[in-house]
Amino acid sequence: MRSKLQIFLFTALISFAVAGCIEQREYPDEPVISYSSFATVDGLSGKDSLAYFSIEFTDGDGDIGLEQGDTLAPFNPGSEYYYNYFITFYQKINGEFQAITTPYNSRIPDVNPDHLEKDLKGEITIEIDLNILSLVLTSDTIKMKAYIVDRALHHSNVIETPEFVLDLN
């Protein structure tokens, strides 16, 4: 009798130890993002021509990103949710940041196309063409605010980056 109890307790102890080693993730259904990095790349002229902006995210229902064919309402062209990654650039003028009214929105591809995971954690990096952005900039100092929207139309928090000085001229 005593050996069965010892075996049961030993088995229970091992089960709890193993369960404690398995990462239990539970994220809210709304995406949560945080700033990760911003890096520039010089073009042929030696000036900044591209930037890579990275955010980290979590999502509890695993529906970050859109398929290329996701063009029916509410993801149809011209609708509010055609894009799912929204960035507002700010430029520093006379010591104050002012929003650039031209939006820089993009579509994040489906990061979980097989829908195997519900709790997602990862990083998204987008490429920004600074040659195009420079057409609307009058300053070399910028910062950004960004948020994402998942397929269930849950909006993430809005993040704000530190300021960056670009070498465009």
Explain how this protein is built:
By secondary structure, the protein is mainly β. It has a single domain, classed as Immunoglobulin-like, CATH 2.60.40. 14% of the residues lie in helices and 36% in strands. The chain contains 2 helices and 9 strands; from the N terminus they run H-E-E-E-E-E-E-H-E-E-E. It has helices at 2-21, 130-133, and strands at residues 32-42, 48-59, 85-93, 96-99, 104-106, 120-129, 141-148, 159-160, 164-165. The strands form 2 sheets. Strands 3, 4, 5, 7, 8 and 9 form a 6-stranded antiparallel sheet that branches. A 3-stranded antiparallel sheet has the order 1-2-6. A hairpin with a 2-residue loop joins strand 3 (85-93) and strand 4. The longest helix has 20 residues, at 2-21. It is elongated. 16% of the residues are buried. Mean pLDDT is 87; it is low at 1-22.
**What class do helices, strands and sheet pairing give?**
mainly beta
Number of strands: 9
Computed Rg = 22 Å
Overall average residue pLDDT:
87
Distance between the termini: 83 Å
Task: Please give a quick description of this structure.
With 169 residues, the protein is mainly beta.
Fold blueprint:
Elements: H1 2-21, E1 32-42, E2 48-59, E3 85-93, E4 96-99, E5 104-106, E6 120-129, H2 130-133, E7 141-148, E8 159-160, E9 164-165
Antiparallel strand pairs: 1-2, 2-6, 3-4, 3-5, 3-7, 7-8, 7-9
Question: What labels would you give this structure?
Answer:
Immunoglobulin-like; 169 residues; mainly beta; disordered N terminus; three-stranded antiparallel sheet; 2 helices
